[in-house]
């Protein structure tokens, strides 16, 4: 990790501590101690395992998409990809660093950068598409709860959905409409053309070459229906494990009356809220969203803060630390 990334990482830890401290300002210490004593650690382990399975299934997606008759990636390298993605997402605004970190991880295994980019974009499109599909389901199950009790979040949730939908649409255009992509490149390079026509022509030719290779690879992958269906199924199951984590935390706190589907739907809505906050990890928005949506499930503020802390440790800080370890380990090149 660079010094800048280390500083950001430390900053996120400090920010998390400040947010937790702020959340504790009105909490009865006795309530928190009681909730901690009654905590069922078996369900906490299940919640952690759900996060581990989520990451392993993403590694399986990577392996499915990379492995062909001529290429293959080892399980160790495949597992490393989602871990460094967690690190990249966790230390950059809007989780923008996840894709570059994954590209670095795949390139280090010996995979061609053009093919690695295609694999990652297709993986990202499928992932975002599954988020949109799950969100539509969550709207049916949990949207009335938000509009009646938390109407101030309605606009934020809908805006998050629209952003994800636009992202998927634009990515599909990049993958399957080279004319539109070429035009976008021309528009983006207009400032370069004003400064230097020579540099413009050089950059334009180089970028178009990469786009054409990328487009060809995307078409090849898109025609591989069997692989695409596998990736869609695995990604859907992967997200189900992630969305179920708050349910296991509620069970750990003795809230056995919680409905699994309803809790998962609310978690889907929280993910939409987090995506709109520019602070790395959605810090602030994540905690507020969780508190607002899950306060009705828990008996007091002490239990709520404890649930929020456990949720953030499992879904955010666990990935950060695992990503640091994965990024620091030496990489053995796969058989490419």
Can you describe what's shown?
This protein has helices spanning 3-23, 29-37, 41-66, 75-90, 98-108, 113-149, 154-176, 178-188, 190-195, 197-223, 225-243, 245-252, 260-274, 285-294, 301-328. By secondary structure, the protein is mostly helical. The protein has one domain (3-12, 34-328). Helix 3 packs antiparallel against helix 11 and helix 8 packs antiparallel against helix 10. The longest helix is centred in the middle third of the chain and has 37 residues, at 113-149. The radius of gyration is 21 Å and the shape is globular. The mean pLDDT is 82.
The residue-averaged pLDDT reads: 82
Q: Classify the helix fraction into a percent range.
A: over 70%
- Principal-axes geometry comes out as globular
Biggest sheet overview: none
Our estimate of the beta-strand percent is: under 5%
Derived from helix and strand composition plus strand pairing, the structural class reads mainly alpha
First-residue to last-residue Cα separation: 26 Å
Radius of gyration: 21 Å
Query: How many separate helices?
Result: 15
How many strand elements?
0
Query: Can you write the helix and strand succession as a string?
Result: HHHHHHHHHHHHHHH
User: Which stretches are low in confidence, meaning pLDDT under 50 for 5 or more residues running?
Assistant: none
How many structural domains are formed by the residues? 1
Membrane topology: Multi-pass membrane protein
Protein name: Phosphatidylglycerol lysyltransferase
Subcellular location: Cell membrane
Keywords: Antibiotic resistance, Cell membrane, Lipid metabolism, Membrane, Transferase, Transmembrane, Transmembrane helix
């Amino acid at each position: 990790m660079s010094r800048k990334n280390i500083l950001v990482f430390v900053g996120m830890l400090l920010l998390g501590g400040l947010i937790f401290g702020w959340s504790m300002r009105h909490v009865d210490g006795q309530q928190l101690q009681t909730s901690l004593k009654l905590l069922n650690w078996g369900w906490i382990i299940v919640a952690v395992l759900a996060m581990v399975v989520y990451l392993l299934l993403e590694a399986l997606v990577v392996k499915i998409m990379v492995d062909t008759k001529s290429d293959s990636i080892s399980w160790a390298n495949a597992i490393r990809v989602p871990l460094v993605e967690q690190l990249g997402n966790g230390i950059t605004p809007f989780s923008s660093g996840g894709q570059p970190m994954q590209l670095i991880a795949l390139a280090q295994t010996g995979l061609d950068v053009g093919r690695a980019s295609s694999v990652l974009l297709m993986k990202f499109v499928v992932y975002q598409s599954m988020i949109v599909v799950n969100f539509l389901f969550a709207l049916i199950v949990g949207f009335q709860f938000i509009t009646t009790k938390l109407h101030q979040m309605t606009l934020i949730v809908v805006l998050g959905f629209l952003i994800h939908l636009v992202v998927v649409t634009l990515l599909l255009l990049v993958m399957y409409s080279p004319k539109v992509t070429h035009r976008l490149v021309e528009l983006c390079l207009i400032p370069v053309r004003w400064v230097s026509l020579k540099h413009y022509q050089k950059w334009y030719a180089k970028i178009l070459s990469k786009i054409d290779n990328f487009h060809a690879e995307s078409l090849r992958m898109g025609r591989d229906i069997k692989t695409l269906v596998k990736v869609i199924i695995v990604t859907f199951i992967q997200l189900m494990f992630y969305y179920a984590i708050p349910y296991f935390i509620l069970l750990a706190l003795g809230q056995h009356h919680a409905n699994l589907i309803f809790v998962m739907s609310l978690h889907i809505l929280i993910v939409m809220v987090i995506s709109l906050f520019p602070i790395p990890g959605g810090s602030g928005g994540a905690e507020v969203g969780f508190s607002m949506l899950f306060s009705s499930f828990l008996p007091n503020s002490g239990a709520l803060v404890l649930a929020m802390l456990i949720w953030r440790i499992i879904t955010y800080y666990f990935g950060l630390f695992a990503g640091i370890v994965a990024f620091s380990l030496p990489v053995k090149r796969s058989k490419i």
